[in-house]
Amino acid sequence: MGTSWRVAAMPLVFALTLAACKDDDSVGPIEGAPPAELVGTWSMQSVTVNGQPASLADVLEWDPNTASSDFTVETSGVYTYRELNVQGVPTFLAAGTITISGNGFTISVSSVNGTPIPAQRQSGTWELVQGELRLTTQEDFQGSMATVVLVCVRK
Q1: If phi over 0 gives left and psi between -120 and 50 gives alpha, with beta otherwise, what is residue 150?
Q2: How far apart are CA 39 and CA 118, in angstroms?
Q3: For the chain, N or C: smaller number of CB within 10 Å?
Q4: Where are the alpha helices (DSSP H) in 2-148?
């Protein structure tokens, strides 16, 4: 599940970026763009699998040198996902786009570590609860489908 979450997290971040995008010349938000409250950099804090606490490293299949991960959602609709070592140096980078429809998102990852890849998509729901961003997806984890909830805070 780590690899799929790693790739999924990238588009998710992008989706959040799109939700925050607005067209300055329009009366309302762009369809599919992320709402402004999602624009910025978010640090992944915790994860649950089927309601049980789990390790971010296990779920996201981090490299052994990775200590944390974050993602940035830009008003342009671009998102980037990073895994960082203890010195804050990236150990993994992904980029793509995200679209928002209500509380649903779809992320499409288009590059990993600067190399273009065939689009990989991840869908789920998002919600802001007392300053925490919660991203929920259905994932294959250790051979069976599971509900995975990532909790993120603004950096």
Answers
A1: beta
A2: 26
A3: C
A4: 2-20, 56-59
- Tens digits of per-residue pLDDT, 44-62? 999 999 999 999 999 999 9
Here the CATH number for the domain that contains residue 9 is 2.40.128.280
Number of domains in the chain: 1
pLDDT per position as a tens digit, 58-108? 999 999 999 999 999 887 778 899 999 999 999 999 999 987 888 998 888
Nearest-angstrom CA–CA distance, 48 and 59: 9
Pairing type for strands 144-154 and 78-84 reads unpaired
Closest CA to 49 of 154, 138, 152, 113: 138
**Domain of 144, in residue numbers:** 2-154
5-24 pLDDT per residue, tens: 555 554 444 333 333 333 44
Residue 80 backbone dihedrals phi, psi, to 5 degrees: -135, 145
Burial (CB count <10 Å: 0-12, 13-18, 19+), residue 22: middle
Residue 23's pLDDT is what? 40
Strand partners for 144: 141
